[in-house]
């Protein structure tokens, strides 16, 4: 069985290091502070889907370092709240809020996104969760909580990078899940659970090619900096992450594990498919 790989711990511990910033810039083309498969142009598309503006309030579940959340805040002028279980990620996010003097429009909290959130019903106009829903247990309960948190005309947008669309070996599953808790979901299950919890599915888009490209870029760019990264992360963590990214790229490239973006509205929303 694959050993637990300290992927997120390593990433957030060294997030502001010049070496990691350089690698991210080469991996993504544009570094927006992400630690997922999302790229700047993809986030721009997602913002268009949600139709955010200064009158809207957004919840970002599993917000990571907070930088991608604050990019949404800056681009749309909506107010944002980000939650994550990674203490170092939230620490980075709060420092950015203070540094940029955004206390009136942005906040971040150390919270488990799989649990009930400390917000009143109908608090948010939109909820996003990028490449992290697969880390949250009890997906149906998560959807119910998101439904509670949304205003009547609200929408959710999430990406699921662990949708099973082909054949997987035991070794591939173990390596793909080596960085933490994972839920592997058969294609069609998300739509079923969304409908059962009151949502209307507005859009589903295949974004697997993005994941395959970014995973491959991570493996290549980290290999270029092998010596420096091993000195920071240690041999086992470095090699574990390389195996992880290689497996991600292979499974996505062969469409064995796919990544889909979902847009869903609360109840019988009038918003049409975009």
Report on this model:
The chain is 45% helix and 21% strand. It is built from eleven helices and eight strands. Helix 9 (208-224) runs antiparallel to helix 11 and helix 10 crosses helix 11 (235-253). The protein is an alpha/beta fold and 274 residues long. Strand 1, helix 4 (67-76) and strand 2 (79-84) form a beta-alpha-beta unit. The longest helix is centred in the last third of the chain and has 19 residues, at 235-253. Strands 1, 2, 3, 4, 5, 6, 7 and 8 form an eight-stranded mixed β-sheet that branches.
Looking at this protein, list some descriptive labels.
alpha/beta, 8-stranded mixed sheet, single chain, 274 residues, globular
The amount of helix comes to 40-55%
Q: Give the C-alpha Rg.
A: 18 Å
| Shape, per Cα inertia axes | globular
Termini separation (Å)? 43 Å
**Largest sheet geometry:** 8 strands, mixed
DSSP strand count: 8
Number of helices: 11
Strand-pairing-aware structural class: alpha/beta
Give, in order, the helices and strands. Answer: HHHEHEHEEHEHEHEHHHE
Query: What percentage of amino acids are in beta strands?
Result: 15-25%
| Poorly predicted sequence stretches spanning 5 or more consecutive residues | none
Mean pLDDT: 92
Summarize this structure briefly.
The longest helix has 19 residues, at 235-253. The mean pLDDT is 92.
Helices and strands, with pairings:
Blueprint: H1 7-13, H2 18-28, H3 40-50, E1 57-61, H4 67-76, E2 79-84, H5 87-100, E3 106-110, E4 124-129, H6 139-149, E5 150-164, H7 170-176, E6 185-186, H8 189-196, E7 199-206, H9 208-224, H10 226-233, H11 235-253, E8 257-266
Parallel strand pairs: 1-2, 1-4, 2-3, 4-5, 5-6
Antiparallel strand pairs: 5-8, 7-8
């Amino acid at each position: 069985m694959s050993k637990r790989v300290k992927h997120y711990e390593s990433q957030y511990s060294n997030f502001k290091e010049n070496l990691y910033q350089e690698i991210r810039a080469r991996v993504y083309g544009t570094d927006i502070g992400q630690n997922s498969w999302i790229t700047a142009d993809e986030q721009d598309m997602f913002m268009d889907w949600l139709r955010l503006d200064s009158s809207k309030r957004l919840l970002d579940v599993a917000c990571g370092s907070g930088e991608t959340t604050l990019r949404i805040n800056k681009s749309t002028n909506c107010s944002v709240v980000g939650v994550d279980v990674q203490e170092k990620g939230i620490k980075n996010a709060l420092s950015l809020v203070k540094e940029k003097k955004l206390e009136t429009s942005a906040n971040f909290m150390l919270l488990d996104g799989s649990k009930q959130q400390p917000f009143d019903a109908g608090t948010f106009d939109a909820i996003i969760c990028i490449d992290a829903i697969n880390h949250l247990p009890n997906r149906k309960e998560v959807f119910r909580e998101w439904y509670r948190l949304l205003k009547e005309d609200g929408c959710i947008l999430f990406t699921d990078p662990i949708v099973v669309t082909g054949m997987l070996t035991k070794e591939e599953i173990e390596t793909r899940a080596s960085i933490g808790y994972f839920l592997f979901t058969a294609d069609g299950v998300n739509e079923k659970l969304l409908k059962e919890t009151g949502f209307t599915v507005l859009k589903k888009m295949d974004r697997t090619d993005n994941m395959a490209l970014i995973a491959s870029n991570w493996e290549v760019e980290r290999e270029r900096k092998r010596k420096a990264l091993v000195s920071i992360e240690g041999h086992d963590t470095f090699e574990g992450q390389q195996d992880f990214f290689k497996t991600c790229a292979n499974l996505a490239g062969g469409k064995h594990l796919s990544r889909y973006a979902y847009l869903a509205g609360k109840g019988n929303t009038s918003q049409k498919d975009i």
